[in-house]
Design a protein that fits this description.
Helix content: 40-55%
Order of helices and strands: EEEHEEHEHEHHEHEHEHEHHHHH
Structural class: alpha/beta
Largest sheet: 9 strands, parallel
Shape: globular
Length: 343
């Protein structure tokens, strides 16, 4: 796919997710089939540039190009400065967050709260585009603030007039959060009116759903968030299905054990021991969700505080699983679904 001046492997995008799409996760998703992975959002507040969290989020050492960095904020001047700051540090694409529904983001008029203020939207978009004239700027939004105010088509017009190069749309309003099912009629309307690439996002959980969404909306690509948590190989599954019409067999238990252990090593190296162990817990939980015996396994895992203990327990769990099945077998009825915050 040709996307804002870059040649991508395909039209499959990793959605920016707060606390999830760090460098290790982005790299893994790209390795397993994603065409582009957008970073978790970076604050536009220059006072926080020196914080450990912000510096980690702006760390792209060794990352496969193109590097897309998402910035969030509500002040045009600060957003412009944030764009320049990240472009100077290796960002090849700047993505603007106007889709996050989190209260702490919306309460400061950032994220999807901005969809209520179209004039301010235009001011922010123009300021950022003008600040980084040599760097393409993209935008992520929701369909609107609530069901009575689905103004995504209007935001598209403002985006195009401001020089935005591509638009990703999550098929829910801000007020819906992640409840109910995503709708794609609004995305279809946006795509029909668009002169820039449109990426569809929301509830894309299987290769079949990805194909159906592309066909329904006419979108140029699909963006996948929560469905990739603990299942980063979903990108190669979708890529194969779109290319051949055939589904790949479930991955081998031994392969997923290897993928998870490699992911853990990257997390330990990226965050350091203490934070790495803590961050690893949620990824281990996602990888094992729905597998036989995983509830008890996760309960024990959450009590462990060392890298060695985590490694050993993961190896033992998958070794036991491999004795029963060659490939991963999920019992989707065994556990209730956990809603995770995604941008």
């Amino acid at each position: 796919m040709d996307f804002v001046g870059y040649r991508l492997r395909n039209n499959l995008f990793v959605a920016p997710m707060a606390g999830v799409t760090d460098r290790p996760f982005r790299q893994l998703c790209k390795k397993l089939g994603a065409g582009l992975a957008v970073s978790e959002m970076v604050t536009s507040n220059s006072l926080l540039y020196g914080s450990a969290k912000t510096q980690r989020r702006a760390n792209h050492d060794g990352e496969v190009a193109p590097i897309s960095v998402q910035i969030a904020g509500a002040d045009p001047a600060m957003m412009a400065e944030a764009a320049k700051y990240n472009a100077d540090r290796g960002a090849q694409i700047i993505d603007i967050n106007m889709g996050c529904p989190a209260k702490k983001v919306c309460n400061v008029m950032a994220g999807s709260a901005l969809l209520q203020h179209e004039t301010l939207v235009g001011q922010i978009l123009s300021a950022v585009v003008n600040a980084v004239p040599d760097t393409p700027v993209t935008l992520k939004i929701r369909t609107g603030w609530n069901v009575d105010n689905k103004n995504a088509p209007s935001i598209l017009r403002i985006a195009e007039e401001s020089g935005i190069r591509a638009l990703a749309v999550h098929g829910r309003t801000r007020c819906q959060q992640y409840r109910g099912e995503a709708e794609f009629d609004t995305i279809s309307a946006v795509k029909a009116a668009a002169r820039i690439p449109v990426i569809a996002n929301g509830d894309i959980t299987t290769p079949e759903k990805a194909k159906a969404v592309l066909e329904k909306t006419g979108a140029d690509g699909v963006m996948i968030g929560r469905a990739a948590q603990g299942r980063p190989w979903i990108f190669r599954e979708i890529e194969h299905y779109l290319a051949t019409g055939e589904k790949l067999p479930p991955p081998a238990v031994t392969e997923i054990q290897s993928i998870l252990l490699e992911h853990l090593e990257d997390l330990y190296g990226f965050y350091g021991t203490e934070t790495g162990v803590r961050v690893a817990r949620k990824h281990i939980s996602w990888y094992t969700k729905g597998l036989t015996g995983s509830a008890a396994f996760r309960h024990q895992m959450n009590r462990l505080d060392s890298i060695t203990e985590q490694r050993t327990m993961v190896e033992d769990f998958f070794a036991h699983l491999g004795q029963r099945h060659e490939h991963l077998v999920y019992d989707t009825s065994a556990e209730s679904s956990d809603e995770e915050l995604a941008a």
